[in-house]
Amino acid sequence: MASFWSILLKGLRYGMAVVMFPVTALSGLLCRPAAAPPPLKLGAYYWDGWYEPMPSWTDRLLGEFADREPLWGWQSAGVANMEMQIGLAADSGLSFFAFDWYYPESGEINPMNNAVDRFLAAGNSDRMEFCLLVANHSGFSIYPDTWADAVERFLPYLTSDRALKVDGKPVIIFFSARELERCLGGEKQVRESLDYLRGECKKAGLPGCYVMGCTFAERTSAGDIDPCFLGWSVSALKNRAMGFDAVTGYNYHRATLPDGSWEYPFRRLTADYEKIWAMQGKYSLVKYMPVLNGGWDCRPWESGDDDPNRSCYSPDRSPAVIYSHVLQAAQWMKDYPDASAGGLALFYAWNEMGEGGYLLPTVGDDGAALQAIGAAMAAVRAASWDRAGRDTER
After folding, report:
1. From the DSSP assignment, how many helices (H) and strands (E) are in the chain?
2. What phi, psi does 190 have (nearest 5°)?
3. How confident is the model at residue 387 (pLDDT cuts 50, 70, 90)?
4. Is 387 helix (H, G, I), strand (E, B) or coil?
5. Does residue 179 sit within a domain?
6. Does residue 26 belong to any structural domain of this protein?
7. Alpha-carbon gap, residue 56 to 72, rounded angstroms
8. Beta strand pairing status for 210-214 and 129-134?
9. Pick from 156, 240, 242: which is nearest to 193 by CA?
10. Are 103 and 136 in contact, with CB atoms under 8 Å apart?
11. What is the largest CA-CA distance in the chain?
12. Which of 82, 124, 159, 167 is most deeply packed, by most CB within 10 A?
């Protein structure tokens, strides 16, 4: 029998007028969040590289990896489409999107920044919250002489009534804590800059700003997650010195394997994420927001086996592993309550189809990842899971 997602696909391919349908029709088909807040507040990164055809829409992506195409097609543009995505995410237990946002270092606004504005214009945006993930990497860096301008651009989002908050303070995430340190001139300068941001938020009537920085995992020379406290402790001291309220990550993919192979099972990659959570829970000197593994397989953006930027890939993404992963995130909140950043955790990612990290329903996935998350969040709300990540009521 055809699934709901397959029927939806057939309708959506024939015109965006149909896109409004799922916003109401999905109500009740997936697990709608209960009135009482769960101990885990789950979100996802949102990358808007799909508003129109771009170089990232590679031949390899559209051909060899065509199963990653969203059910409504590759293009995700317009408020109606955003309303549909909000409905899908909220019905599956997701509470917020962290929108990748690019500072106009060159003076030219990146159109990918429009995704957050479409979110705010959506008629159902009250079903979710949002924050910015400031993508402060090459080409979009922020320096001392542009910091005040960047803060001015952040403020309309931080003061929004849909802004994600911790302790009443709007959340903002920086893609690279180390790049922020490099561009601003050092730990002291980062702390001063973040204090300036918090001061401007207070002038705008907010109690401050909850600032997170993305950091990398500490690894051994073989590429495994480092089980030794030393590297994590040194990193923790630096993060505290720079003045972050919390740290997190964008993703924790693996670059290479010691034996020269490239395929890395999804279950093992997911276990790596959970090891990182444990190390941050034990040794971080600021709060931590766990990142969940939504997949990594960047082959559509690689030229082939000789690509110098080649990385390991996990082709066996599993809804069962995703389900258990969500339960493990809830367990982490119980195990490390003092380390938690307000109960927040988020997936990499909602729609990074080129890199293989995605939750939205695709031709190949048919909504399985979202259904797994919805079921897991239902178990979280019912507090019916054990430490091994199993639903005790199944």
Report:
1. 12, 12
2. -65, -45
3. low
4. coil
5. yes
6. yes
7. 18
8. unpaired
9. 242
10. yes
11. 61
12. 82
Using an 8 Å Cβ cutoff, are 73 and 138 in contact? no
Tell me whether strands 291-293 and 344-348 are parallel, antiparallel or unpaired: parallel
Distance (Å, rounded) from C-alpha 292 to C-alpha 253?
A: 11
Nearest to 298 by CA among 230, 250, 347, 357: 357
The model's confidence at residue 7, banded by pLDDT at 50, 70 and 90, is: very low
Given a cut of 80, is residue 4 above it in pLDDT?
A: no
Number of domains in the chain: 1
CA–CA separation, 16 vs 11, rounded Å?
9
For 172-211, the pLDDT digits (tens) are 999 999 999 999 999 999 999 999 999 999 999 999 999 9
Cα dist. 324→328, 339, 355 in Å? 6, 21, 22
Q: Which tokens in the block code for residue 322?
A: 């995703």
* Encoded tokens for 158: 């931080």
Helices 177-184, 187-203: inter-axial angle, 10-degree rounding: 100
Encoded tokens for 250: 């964008």
292's CB contacts (< 8 A; 6+ apart) are: 42, 273, 322, 325, 326, 329, 345, 346, 347, 348
For the ranges 32-36, 71-75, 112-116, 172-176, the lowest mean pLDDT is seen at 32-36
Q: Are 359 and 370 in contact (CB under 8 A)?
A: yes
If we measure between CA atoms, which residue out of 249, 354, 357, 247 comes closest to residue 309? 354
Give pLDDT, residue 28.
Answer: 36
Tokens 């999804």, located at residue? 266
Cα separation of the two ends of the chain: 24
What six digits make up the tokens of 382?
């019912």
Residue 390 lies in a domain: no
d(CA 354, CA 99): 17
* Tokens at 164, concatenated: 């994600």
| Domain of 197, in residue numbers | 4-381
Residue 314, domain CATH = 3.20.20.80
Q: For 14-28, 111-125, 170-184, 256-270, which range has the lowest pLDDT when averaged over its residues?
A: 14-28
Residue 350: which of 295, 390, 285 has the closest Cα?
Answer: 295
What tokens does 73 get?
């097609």
Q: pTM value?
A: 0.90
**Using 50, 70 and 90 to split pLDDT, how confident is the model at 305?**
confident
Indicate the burial class of 383 (C-beta count within 10 angstroms; 0-12, 13-18, 19 or more).
exposed
Pairwise CA distance, residues 320 & 266, whole Å = 11
| Any domain includes 109 | yes
